[in-house]
Structures are given as C-alpha cells and as structure tokens.
Amino acid sequence: MNNALHILKKYWGYETFRHLQHEIVESVLENRDTFALLPTGGGKSICYQLPALCRDGICLVISPLIALMKDQVDQLNGQGIKSYAIYTGLTNREIDIILDNCIYGSAKLLYVSPERLQTEIFIERVKKMNVNLLAVDESHCISQWGYDFRPSYLKISDFRDRVLQEVPTIALTATATKKVIEDICDKLKLNNPNIFKASFERKNLAFAVRKIEHKEQKLLDIVQNVPGSGLVYVRHRKTAKDLAEFLLKNQISADYYHAGLSHDARMKKQESWQAERTRIIAATNAFGMGINKSNVRVVVHYDVPDNLESYYQEAGRAGRDGKKAYAVMLYHEGDKSLLKTYFENAHPAIDFLKRLYQALANYFKIAVGSNMLSYFDFDITDFCNNFNLHRSETYYGLKKLEEEGFLELNESFYHPSKVSINLGKEELYKFQIANATFDPLIKILLRLYGGEILGNFTRISEHQIARLLNTTTYKIKSNLDHLNSLKIITYDPVRDKPQLAFVTNRYDANRLPLNRERLNHRKSIQKEKLDAIVKYVENTTQCRTGMILRYFGEHNYADCGHCDYCLDRKRKISKSDRDRVREMVHFQLRKGPQLPEVLLKSFAAHEIQLAEDIIREMTDTDDLKYDGMGRLDFGKRQA
Question: To bridge 27 with a disulfide, which of 34, 70, 171, 306 should be the other Cys (CB 3.0-4.6 Å)?
C-alpha cells in the first residue's frame, strides 16, 4: 500500500485516499474478487486504475459507454498512463494496432464494450496479454433488476471462465439497490467477494421538490437565489435551447447542450461552463459523463426522470466539493400523465421491433448473418422519412433493441482524424525520395507527431498541417486520401455523426430472438421504478433524503434536517415547543451525561422526532458533545 500511495500522489496528485478507496485498492491487491459501490463523484475509477499501475501487466475494463471510455482514456494518457479503448467505430486496422500494443507494448489499461468479449479474434488476442485485473464498470447493467440492463453483460462470466480464470475481478457501480448488488455478485460469479458500500447520504446536498404551475418562472427564481454554477436537466433538446434563451433574456449567463450538436460545439459549451464563463447550462442526459466540476451549487430537474437511480446520479453532480448545494425537482400535475405516456412509448410491441429491425437492415443493405460489430453513420430523420416511421416511436424502438443487445446507438459520436504510417523508416525514406510531391507532407507528419505515428494511429489536425504547409485543408485531406490509397499510410478521417452499430450478426427479422418473458419482466421492473419516483415527487410526509436512502437499502436513517420536507416541518413547529424540548434536554443532563436513547425516553412518543432534531442541532453548535462512552454531555458553549 505504500507503493499505492506513492502512485496515487505521482499520477493523481492526492496525498490520501478518499472514503473506502484504500480498503478497495487493498482488497484488489490481495487478489480478492471485489464489489465496490461508490456514489457519483466518489472516485470509482481510481479503485481499478491504481491497482493496474501497481503490477506488471494490463487491466481489462468492461464499460458500456463509448463517451465515458474515451474520456477516461484521454485523461489517463494526459496523466502519462498508456491506455486504449476499443469500441464500435474504429477500423479493423486501428483495433489490430491497439491489440498489438496491449500484447507487446507498455499499455496499462484497455477499455472495451462487453460485446467485444464475444468475438473469437478478441478472445485469442487477450490470451496473449498479461492481464492483471478485470474491472467491470457500470456493473448494474448485468442485473435485470437494475435500471440499465444489458444482456451482453451476462456473457462476462463466461469470458472470465474461458480466458481469465486466475485474474481477480472488481465490479463497480454508482447506483444499486441491495437486490441488484446480490444479482451482480451472482451473475459475475464473484468468488467470496469483499463488498464495499459507501452510504448514499450526501450531507451537504439539500433535496427539494417544487410543485408549481409555471416551471420557467420557478427555475428563474432558483438560479437567482442560489449563486454559483448550475445544471438544468431536461428531457428534450428543444427544451434545453428554449430554457437557455429564457435565462439569457433574464440576464442569467446560460447555454444549452445536447447530443445533436457538433463535437466542437459541445466541447466549447462544456469548456465555457467548466471555466465559469457560462453559469447555467440546460442539458439533456447526454451531458455529465466524464464531467469533473466540483463547485456546482444547484442541479435542477425541469422534467421528472424515469427512475430514482438516474435522478440520484444526475443530482449528485451538485456539491462534490462538500459545500452546501441543492437538488431541486420541478413538478407539474400534468407530469404524471406524461411519465405514463413516456413509459408506454418506451416499451414498443414486439411486432414493431421486428419491423424496425428489418427496416434498418434494408436501409444499410445488410445481408442475413453478416456485419457483427459493424457501424454506420445514422441520420434518424432520413431513416424515418424513408420508411414512413414516426420519429419518437422509432427512437424508443432503437433504444429497446439496444437494451436487448442487438444494436448500439451513439447519438454524440466523435472520432478525430487519425493517421498511421505503414512503412518502416528506410522504406518511407525511399518513398519520399521517389515522390517529392508528398515529401513535405510526410516530413510535417513526422515533425508534428514524432516516431509514434510509425505503426500507431495518431490523432492529427488537417487544419494545423495545412497552416504549416501554407496550403488548404482540402488539399491536405486529398493528399492523405491518396497516400492511403497507395497503402503508405492508413488515414481515418474525422467522423462527427450519430453512429448505429449492429452488435450481433444480422438476424432474419422474423426470427429475431426477442425474449418476450424478459421484455415483460423488464417492463414490470421499470414500472416499479416509475412508481417510486412518482411517490418521491408527490411525497409530503417523509424526509426526501431518507426516501432516497431507503430506496437504496439504507433503512436506519434519521431525518436529514435540510430537505424541503424537514425545513417545512421545522417551520411548523412553534418556538415555544422547541424551547420546551431544549429546556428538558438541559434539565436531564444536569443530572449527568446520558446515552441518547436514555435521554429520549424522557419525551413523549410524539416529541421524539423533534427531540432528535434539537439534539443534533445542539451538537452541531457545540452546545452538546459526546464523551468517550458515547454519552451526551454539555459542550464548550454550555461549559
């Protein structure tokens, strides 16, 4: 662990571990199968990245999210930790080079989607790697009881049994109920795992629901009254744009973000928000993955999400610096019927799913039995127009086919231009002598990107190259295309369009193996989750934080004291009642220190909750303190 602390400081700049990180890293380094539940912002990734650096070999990371994979790999490489990601959208040549680097090079982490584990080519290459750890991120995806089930996750244990028998496994997630945790450990076949669960409680985060008629005005009131950075989550792209314009008209610095924007536009908006030039950003749930902004003071959900897991994860982006922050849900009476409509749309009939699958096969001209893990640029508007399909119904159908493991839809795919020089130095030099036209371009590639570009795919900027060679970007792209055709280089130009991938070989649509029983089961589970969030927003009788914690299996929790319910209850309690309880506490403690449970017996049943609140307030203000035996006594202010 001394070496682990040294690596933690060297690569992350931290002197100490966060809560539970030390214990989790120690468990992994002892070769124990490990389960780790750390809520959003709890530092999950370090729990497998750091052990990977403590040992020879490479850590294989399973993740379902391309955007998150790419963010992680960019961050790691920026820290000097050689890492790669394989995902749909890469060329076969790029994948081949990455796998070679993981076998023969100094790579420490390889991120892959779970579908990749099912290909024989990948399996054979992994057998040649020195894998020191298998990390299953977003492990809740393995559970049908979870909110984001993926059938491909069920194959991970088969892959482990076949390829990585002696390699320890760590499963990680930010949101899981007790039932989901048990299911994860069972489905991954974790061997007597060490289980670490951080509490879901965020003491600095005040939860609130505002039931109102006019959401726009309430949003304005909130951002005017809560200073600092804010994030507003919406369900639809148009709403994000409309709200940003509304806030701007009211002199609030604001912008919007969604998956339909170009990569450059998304990056500019995100960077402006992170640098405090934009105060409020209205966004769909495409925003947030990989965002590490600690000083967000308020997260507002303008639309009610589908489940408490998504809500808690998104709301949890507020107050990561430990200072006071707010998570507010805006609720209109009509939202309940809207949620029911969204729910029904999200579970299309099997006949429609088969028809949609056949239309996709026709659209991309894919033969039965072909195109596993192949990808295509996808314009959903053009597709719907071609087959006379309703856009909303089509979108939900695509998401259901994705959930069932047939497709992968990436709405915000960005793949920068990359080049790999295929020749060795001597052959390349001979080519330059014989082809003077291309000599300046090859020289500038070598000068800008060094020897790394020889045999390795390297990001390039055609615009930068054109500027240095005093020519046009169009000319540079044309010359790169020509060199690609001559097989001197492999040139993979930029792609910035939504991508649709066939995760399996194409089925005959009539024989598409949709599991009717599982579909119905998933629908019933998601209905329970929908009912839970409706209960949360309509609640007027319970502490909000307590509701969330109980949902995630933490039942022994007193009221938080700072959610909307708790504050409202405090306001309703008269000053005389509070003074009377305080005086009773003083009276009892003048007899000597007392255990809290003994002290509370002095109060009537209906007064106990108020007494607990008063005692908590008095300890927070040093009026009371706990002695070495856990008894309450007068604190510094009373002494």
Answer: 34
